[in-house]
Every structure is written in structure tokens, then in C-alpha cells.
Amino acid sequence: MTATAGPVCTGASTAATGYPSFSSYVRARGPVLLRTARSLTANPSDAEDLLQTALAKTYVAWGGIEDHRALDGYVRRALLNTRTSQWRKRKVDEFACDELPELPGLPGPDPAEQQALRDAMWRAVMRLPDRQRAMLVLRYYEDLSEVQTAEVLGVSVGTVKSAVSRALGKLREDPELSRESLGPSPVR
């Protein structure tokens, strides 16, 4: 950490205040303050820079801080204010150009085709045996785990696995859900 001050800071702060030196404060409390700075940023290097800036502000105000028991609070407030200023100063560069940078996207799927697919899927699910349909709906529509599905239905996990596997196999083989009956898909 580069936040510790050299001998110039020690002499200036001691002469100005008569309180413990700024550099001794930074040596004693630096690690704690750095943890606070790290909690405000995602990057350890940014945290060190943030702490350095807050300590520079504290050094400037060192002679005016009467209660040195409140120094940690003063530095924490400087950390928060500095970080808030950084968020506010973040700028987004925008450049005018003749052409839009976005690539033209593929046309989205037709809502009518999507609804037809959903309807065909539910008809196919309704043709499954009751037990397989119940396990499939709990497992995928209700997003329960295999263990939770087994608990709800009072069966073993293995039963859920095999029944869901068989149900999915039947759905894959369902003629109404084949690619030929649904038509070509615009997005693959």
C-alpha cells in the first residue's frame, strides 16, 4: 500500500497539531481502512487508489480535526464521498457516426408460430399417462428437483428419473411435435 506518508508528513502534522502524526495513524489503521475501501470497489487496485485519495483529503484536513478518536469515521466518510463522486463522474463516450454500429438481427420468431408450438406441446403433454405427465410438469414446469418431485408424489428418485426419461422420449417421438409438422424454424 502506498498510503503511508514519508518524513515530510510526519514533521508537518506533528508541528501543526501536536497530536499523533498522520503517518503513525496510517500505519496503525491502514489495513482496516483498506478493508473498508475494498468493500466499496470490486478491484483491489481501485480500493488502494480510493484509500490513497481519502487519506490525501484527510491529510489536508489533519490540522482541523480536533477529536482524533473520530479519525476512522472521518476517513470512512471521505472514502464514501470519494467513491460516490467517482460514480457520478463516470462518463460514457458517445461518438456520432454515419452508420449504426448494430448488425441487423435475424427476424424474431413469429408469435403465431410460437403459440402454435406451445399449443402442440401442451396437447402432447396431455396425451402422456397421468403419472408421467405429473412428474414432467413438476420437474420442468414447476422447476422442482428430482428429490422434491419424488417427495411430492411419494415415489423414489429413481422412479422420477425413469418416468421423466420415458415421458421426454414420448414427446420426442410425438408426430405433432416433429420438425416436419411444425414447419421450418426461422432461428436455429
Keywords:
188 residues, mainly alpha, 9 helices, 0% strand, disordered N terminus
Please provide a brief summary of the model.
This protein is mainly α. It has helices at 7-17, 22-40, 44-61, 71-89, 111-126, 130-141, 146-153, 157-173, 179-182. The relative contact order is 0.08.
Structure description:
By secondary structure, the protein is mainly α. Helix content is 66%, strand content 0%. The chain is built from nine helices and no strands. It has helices at residues 7-17, 22-40, 44-61, 71-89, 111-126, 130-141, 146-153, 157-173, 179-182.
Counting DSSP E segments of at least 2 residues, the number of strands comes to 0
Strand content: under 5%
The average pLDDT value, as a whole number, equals 80
Radius of gyration: 33 Å
Helix and strand topology:
Elements (H helix, E strand, L loop, with lengths): L6 H11 L4 H19 L3 H18 L9 H19 L21 H16 L3 H12 L4 H8 L3 H17 L5 H4 L6
Helix pairs in contact: 2-3, 2-4, 3-4, 6-8, 7-8
